[in-house]
Amino acid sequence: MTNRERVLCALSGGTPDRVPYCELGVDEPIVRQLLGDPASQDRPYESGEYADNPVDLEKALSRALGRDNINHGLRPPIAAERHVGEGNLLFYGDGYIKSRADLGRLRLPDPAGDSFYASARDFLAGGEDFARCASCRLGVSPAYLSMGQESFSLALYDEPELVDEILHRYTAWSAEVMKRVCAMGFDFVWTADDIAFKNGLMLSPKMFRERILPHLRKVADCITIPWIFHSDGNLSAVLDDLVGLGIAGLHPIEPTAMDIRALKRRYGKRLCLVGNVDVHMLAAGTPAQVETEVAGLLRDVAPEGGYILSSGNSLAAYCRVENIRAMVDTLRRFGGHSA
Predict the structure, then answer these.
(1) Which of 250, 244, 197, 268 is nearest to 22 (CA)?
(2) pLDDT digit string (tens) for 22-51?
(3) Which of 6, 116, 243, 249 has the most CB atoms around its CB within 10 Å?
(4) Considering the entire predicted model, what is its pTM?
């Protein structure tokens, strides 16, 4: 199987020739350790969340990692303070939108204009046999980041119309982007919208269903190719709601918050599980510990298909490259379904 075929097979609940390996995020310091110091990796932050890797760099990174996917971001700008930290990592500070008077600060590129998709066309043309992923957002995390978490939480009760307006603007934009993404030739979509902490949702399940889910459904209805939903934390209270949106896969199934083996028993092939090698172990563990962890996932979660190996969040800057290599080497040794 090609990389693309392998990923799409797993996302459909099938059993590919081997377990695929995918990552949504690889921090720049890890890229530099794997590939040297490519000048093209100096990513500016003039617009959007960051400038994406060119397709040739994405392919080189995937070859170095043994990764089956390559990623291209089509995410909206966030109206919040931005701080660039060590390793060119982007962090958000307080949001700019505190009232209706601030809505003018929410400026989104034209989702119907061809210029927004120019780099995506180049990415697709050079994708080769890798599974070509569009990294997008549904819209809830840009909304709360643009307000600031505390302001957003208070406004859900004190000024719900403002929250609805911000959610509407982001999700309407994302819906139009999804229509274009699905028609362009991407193989799958990977959305990233954190909605939970380790102990549960950022807001009550009732509030999520009443105030957030209808907005997300408008975006989900526009996605016509397989897609993976990413959120850290414990999603148990609304997981059936998320499945009802039509997701093909769930990531990262944060190991300190959710039990991936229990999810396998509950959902079987109805949901492709994408995860969940503990990032703390990749950072502070040993290669032997990583090997044991990955071998256990391949033993317990991979049988009967519908599984993609991934980190339990991303390949963060503080991960040890020798542990990342141990994860991939273990997959090569034990991830073949024909063995």
Answers:
(1) 250
(2) 999 999 899 999 998 654 445 554 445 555
(3) 249
(4) 0.94
**Is there a contact between 6 and 20 (Cβ–Cβ < 8 Å)?**
yes
Tokens coding 338:
């024909």
67-112 pLDDT, tens digit per residue, is 999 999 999 999 999 888 776 777 889 999 999 999 999 999 999 9
Q: Give strand pairing partners of 310.
A: 276
Residue with tokens 């609805």: 164
Distance CA 187, CA 227 (A): 9
In 3D, which of 164, 136, 236 has the Cα closest to residue 195? 236
Please give the helix or strand (H or E) that residue 292 lies within, else none: helix 287-300
Please check whether residue 227 is in contact with residue 188, taking contact to mean a CB–CB distance below 8 angstroms: yes
Beta bridge partners of 75: none
The domains found in the chain, sorted by start residue, are: 3-334 (3.20.20.210)
The beta strand positions in the chain, using DSSP E, are 69-73, 80-85, 89-95, 131-136, 188-192, 196-197, 200-201, 227-230, 249-251, 272-277, 307-311
Beta strands in 42-164 (DSSP E): 69-73, 80-85, 89-95, 131-136
Q: What is the SS3 assignment for 26? A: strand
Pairing of strands 196-197, 200-201: antiparallel
Q: pLDDT for 127-137, tens place per residue?
A: 999 999 999 99
CB 220 within 8 A of CB 184: no
pLDDT score at 43: 53
What does the buried/exposed string (b/e) look like for 28-50 if buried means 16 or more CB atoms within 10 Å of the residue's CB? Answer: bbbbeebeeeeeebeeeeeebbb
Q: What does DSSP assign to residue 212? A: I
Strand partners, 201: 196
